[in-house]
Structure formats: C-alpha cells, structure tokens
Amino acid sequence: MDIKEIQELLKSAFDEGIGEPVTDKPVDPYITVETGKIHAVCLFLRDEERLQFDYLSCLSGVDYDKDNLASVYHLYSFALNHKIVLKVIVPKSNPIVPSVYDIWAAAEWHERESYDLMGIVYENHPDLRRILLPEDWEGHPLRKDFKVPEFYNGMKIPY
Fold this sequence. Notes:
Layout: H1 3-13, E1 30-32, H2 38-47, E2 55-63, E3 68-77, E4 82-91, E5 96-98, H3 107-118, E6 121-123, E7 151-152, E8 155-156
Parallel strand pairs: 1-4, 5-6
Antiparallel strand pairs: 2-3, 3-4, 7-8
C-alpha cells in the first residue's frame, strides 16, 4: 500500500488532524498528524487489518526551526511489507506529545532519548527520564538553541 492509500484510510477513520502526504522531499514520504491525534492514529495503524504496522523502527526528535520541534515515527509492517513516516510538530514553548509506548514497547527508549536530547515530553510515558546524559544536566543538547555550558559540576567543558 502506498502513502496516498494509507492517508486515505486515515482520513476516512479520522475527521481531522491528518495532513496531506509529503512526497516531494529527498526523504521518505511522510504524513503530518496533529499532536492530539497521534496516539489514536498509531493505534489505528497497528490494529487496522489492511495496514498492520507492527514495528516502530525509529522515533526521533527533530529541531526544525526557532519555534518548533517534531517527533518523527518510522513504522513498518512485516506482514504487508510497507512503511510510513509520521510527523508531529510541537512548539518549543510546550513540546508535549502523547507517548506511544503502550502501542509499541520499543518506543520506551526512543522517547526517552528524544526527551533527553531534544526536550520533547511524552505524556503517559512510564519512565520519562534522561537516558544518555546525567540526571542533573541542564538543557537539551541537540536543540539548535542549546548553549554548551562552560562548566559542569565544577569541571571545565573542553569546547
């Protein structure tokens, strides 16, 4: 099934919150989903017999511009051999996205990494804490506006 067919199924299942497929970029085609719909959309994608997206291969945080972050989901169906990419755009001032951990357990560490490095908060995540950086680290170092501190716990940072 191609991205347009998947998008049509999503549009028929959800009244709103589903964007048009983006296919003219040098990346995998994707569909933008409103923040409040992402959990229901992911559940539908997993459970709908014609889709069967049983594998979350990657979930990433992306810093697009000065105002917005994105949570990007790469999904694959082993049963039907098709894939899709979803994007949720959130403001940097309030970067909250519903967790999909209860849909794909693999999301647990992916969401923690996105939180740690980008600052996206995944609502209802069972253990949302830093995964790579120390617990007392301030900020999210993959954000474009991150300023490397001169010192960490009294030690000079060599940058």
